[in-house]
């Protein structure tokens, strides 16, 4: 409630105003994580959006100025701007800008009002008096400071104008510190009157005065304590309720002019109003106060904080009952907000009554949820659709913030999905794909058939050329096209997939490209390898080694670039997260994280999910494909060749990478049984050499040549022995004949 303008950004970040929901430290909240939980959850309002519209659009030019720099620095910067712009021309003797700036600096360093006035001699009278008052204020000499600021108000209008706003604001601050509420209010109101009349207000003090005046009301109402001593003032409950309502109006006016400090203050007021010790019957009877509390309790804001609170749920429930116990307002946006609050509090009967005749988005949205709870699915879908259609109506008070519009669209998509209207569901989600990309992934990758997805993608707007968007992140359109491309590759339709892979950015190097984001050139290389691995009309033995080489290239690309070429965007590969997690974006089951089947599944959704699974349906499934392709390459190679052994080694390595140790062991046993000894095989499946396909191409020719040589040598040796045998036999025959002839004679 006493926020200053320093560090506002940090405070807003801590309060999470306008922040998106998340269900975990790493993964985005997804609609399909729990379908029933999604569509039956309370409608959440955006507190910052609601609070900034409590007062309606301002009709003046006053706007908040809330930089992060200290106020003194802001004031000095504003003075320099005045000097440089010539705003003081005609109010003082002519002087150079350097001279004026030097006098300003000297006056700011002064430690008393009179010293400041002396240093500021020659500056406009209002400027000199203001600097003197500021010096006294910083020295805590408030009475003397007040005299200098009052002197400005007595100057002629033209001289007073340049410091009228700041002087009035400082008078209000002094009265505030002195515990003088009535004159403080008057001074803050004068601050705004001067600004509205055209007096300069570079620091936005007229808007800041709204918050200061509101604080006075809250202190007088007893809702907050003062930092300064105040006279005892008895305030009855009725007066306190009026003061609180007026403070909310003032903060709302401040917020409507762009003040983030006012949003924090309104949040603090709403939190204080949840105190059951208050006479909340009177306080909540004020429409603007009730609307503030409804916006706070029904918002995503997680900053309910009490030092001694152990039962926050009870406090919130009690507050909801206190709000709902008031007479309902006339039909309109406030009634719809009350219906949303009643639904949040479990008062479904009252929510039904409050939303019965509505035709605005919020009320229709609540009514749709109520219909679903009753089991009336047809009426629920009708009201959800009507709510989405009604978003475009002109009534500013009936508008929803962007987060709510996104959520409403998402819930309609969930219901359409449950009706089997799969393409319509994706059509609804795609405009908010940046928020619900995990849900888009699920429908595109696991529910639509690949041809249905192809037709959807073909209807999307074309992408600009890559050189026109070198520094732009991937768009949902580009990402969906890449998802389709990888899905087509998984089905063996690589030639069709080429049209959907992204174009390579001209001049990019392999190091600059993300291997998990394959482009069209990578896909062309993969397709060329697949085509080269196909058998011809006649599969001659000598044609098999080139085919094996092509198959090994397919295997290698599947292993190294498989995520970008064929990985699933969601589970099991999670290309969307570069494979860092096994799941988290997208769904591992049609039921999301729920263990029981969802009643909101489409008629054949489970069958579609099963049919669209990758083969094999395992993490980094392309690694198993790489192992299979390497094995197929080995089948075409001579078993005693180095290429055969090396290809089997790589197949085993890929099998290990896919987590299939049994397969890796079987491949090793095959090598031992059929392959030739290789000295490097001690680390088989670990460190593998490149297959020597060139040697394999001439393996049989070399074996035949060796065989012929061996046969020729063998024949030569065999022919000499035969000749010797012939000679021996001839000699034996001759000797035998001689012996025979001799015996006869």
Please describe what this structure looks like.
This protein is elongated. Among the domains are: 134 residues, no CATH class; 185 residues, no CATH class; 61 residues, no CATH class; 36 residues. It starts with 7 loop residues before the first helix and ends with a helix. It contains 36 helices and no strands. The longest helix is centred in the last third of the chain and has 46 residues. The protein has 745 residues and is mainly α. Helix 32 runs antiparallel to helix 33.
Break the fold down into its secondary structure elements and pairings.
Elements: H1 8-15, H2 35-40, H3 47-51, H4 71-85, H5 97-109, H6 113-119, H7 125-138, H8 142-153, H9 157-160, H10 164-177, H11 181-196, H12 205-221, H13 237-256, H14 260-272, H15 280-283, H16 287-297, H17 312-324, H18 333-344, H19 348-354, H20 361-374, H21 377-390, H22 402-418, H23 422-429, H24 437-447, H25 450-458, H26 476-490, H27 494-497, H28 520-532, H29 544-560, H30 562-566, H31 605-611, H32 621-635, H33 642-657, H34 661-674, H35 693-697, H36 699-744
Helix pairs in contact: 4-5, 5-6, 5-7, 6-7, 7-8, 8-10, 10-11, 10-12, 11-12, 12-13, 13-14, 13-16, 14-16, 16-17, 16-18, 18-19, 18-20, 19-20, 20-21, 21-22, 22-23, 23-24, 24-26, 25-26, 28-29, 29-32, 32-33, 33-34
